[in-house]
UniProtKB/TrEMBL annotation:
Keywords: ATP-binding, DNA damage, DNA recombination, DNA repair, Helicase, Hydrolase, Nucleotide-binding. Its cofactor is Mg(2+). It catalyses: ATP + H2O = ADP + phosphate + H(+). Residues 23-147 form the DNA helicase Pif1-like DEAD-box helicase domain. Its EC number is 5.6.2.3. Pfam families: PIF1. This is ATP-dependent DNA helicase. Belongs to the helicase family. It is an enzyme of class 5 (isomerase). It comes from the Eukaryota. InterPro entries: DNA_helicase_pif1-like_DEAD, P-loop_NTPase, PIF1_helicase.
Length: 255
């Protein structure tokens, strides 16, 4: 772990509310995994949440939940008060209620996708169901994500943000790329604001490549449709009959 990552672990171990933000390639997923695994080994009940199901795939072994599943938000149509009523009276939310009651530390990844309204709702639900006298009902909360700009209806616009999250750590050491120009280009592209220098760098990479065997090279496509066509062509070239197997899967988000 680098210095910033170790600082994150230290603050969380001291039971602080922490915001962990980063640039591309600074080891955010590695950091979250290390934190969750360490906390669980120490006997803490940690609920790792992501805003989307796709983001949860980064942490499959840690059994993450979507934020909507954790707080029983469903499709977001209900008011804060209605949600609390449903969670406390409807049997279908029994596992949701148990999960909230048992959580010591709530970690939210991809928090840049969480709106002010959703964040306020999650805080309200946790507070009402655990301890009405404390923010988030007394849960320790760790926010993780990447905020590109301040133009959206982000969760850090809530009134209690500065009070609740006095510790903000920015992961800045890039572990994925080594070339300064490449790091600069990746960060600018991630924010949608490439500089003339970055544009010139990208254009310099558009050059013919010498490949002897064109059949085994990896191809990248901008659209899923093009990738599907390419995959289909390769499948068709494989000798033997094409077999189709049907399956029916089910999953319990809390198992």
């Amino acid at each position: 772990m680098d210095t910033d990552q170790k600082l994150c672990c230290s603050l969380i171990k001291k039971e602080h509310y922490v915001g962990i933000f980063w640039q591309v390639g600074t080891g955010n997923t590695f950091t979250i995994k290390a934190i969750v695994e360490k906390l669980k080994k120490e006997g803490q009940n940690v609920s790792l949440n992501c805003y989307t199901g796709i983001a949860c795939l980064n942490y499959t072994r840690l059994k993450p939940l979507t934020l909507h599943t954790f707080a029983g938000l469903e499709d977001g149509r209900h008011s804060k008060e209605k949600l609390v009523y449903r969670l406390t009276t409807d049997e279908q939310f029994e596992k949701t209620l148990m999960c909230i009651h048992s959580t010591d530390i709530l970690i939210i990844d991809k928090v840049s996708m969480v709106s002010k309204r959703v964040f306020e709702t999650v805080e309200y639900v946790c507070k009402k169901l655990k301890d009405p006298s404390k923010l988030f009902g007394g849960m320790q909360v760790v926010l993780c994500g990447d905020f590109g700009d301040d133009n959206g209806d982000y969760c850090f616009h809530v009134d209690f943000f500065s009070k609740c999250f006095p510790h903000i750590v920015i992961l800045s050491q890039n572990h994925r790329q080594k070339e300064p120009m490449l790091i600069k280009a990746v960060n600018e592209l991630a924010h949608g604001e490439p500089s003339p220098e970055t544009n010139a760098f990208i254009e310099s990479l558009a050059r013919p490549l010498s490949v002897d065997d064109q059949t085994d090279i990896t191809r990248l496509y901008a659209r899923n449709f093009d990738a599907d066509i390419s995959n289909y062509r390769y499948l068709e070239s494989i000798p033997g009959p094409l077999c189709t197997f049907e399956a029916e899967d089910s999953i319990d988000a809390f198992e």
